[in-house]
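Give me the fold.
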Amino acid sequence: MNVEFLDTALLRTSSYNPRIVHDPELMQALVESVRVMGVRQPLLVARVGEGFEVLDGGRRLAAARAVGLERLPCIVLDCDVSGLRRAVLSIHLTQDDLTPAELVNLIERMVAEEEFSSVEEVCRFFGLSKQWYYSVKKAAVRRVSGVPVSVQALVEGSQLDDGRKAELLELVKAKKIPRSSVKMILEQLEASGDARVDEVVERVLESMPRRLDEVTVEAEGSYTYQIQRLAGGVDFLVRRSGVIVARFHIPLNDIPVVKKLWQSI
């Protein structure tokens, strides 16, 4: 898609912008970034009447206006009102940047305005399950600030009781645990039944790769595994009790081959 530079006077936040929660500190940080570096990521817009509605980039637009920028890089989508609505929902589903309440409100607005006939149709269109939607709706009632929608929905849809869900969500927030790790934590908690939530969280986090420096990543299991990036490829080391028990050098061109081999197991 081509990037066009459009006058900020022609741009307006989409009437379908679902965002309710605003963080003043993050907004001020964005303003300062735009003041120093400008807007480097194009806004996604659609032509509406004599101007353009911003589908993705409303905060960048606000920051640009705050520092007096007159033109911004934009990608213009060619779509009608129906396409505009669906694009907004698709963008926010992909970015995982809304609270559960904001997401539920947006989906239900789409149904109320007859863009979709039902919540079930929304889910089918985007390849989502009804269970996912009702997990998000439940999460909207018991919102934990700072936890992404998809992570909270994942926890709410699990087999844990409400107390363990609440405990896990607070740990996810405090430790900024990514979704992939939360999934592993849930699998272990559901498999064990009576395991302590905090102990499982610590065990999973300890097993996750950690960066030792710019070129070295390490993970703990029965052994200690370490990958070090070199000019011609990577060195893969396996240690036990501090002693190297295996060492391999993988040429740069062979890394995709090894990756596919590993994923096929």
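The chain has three domains: 4-79, 84-207, 210-263.
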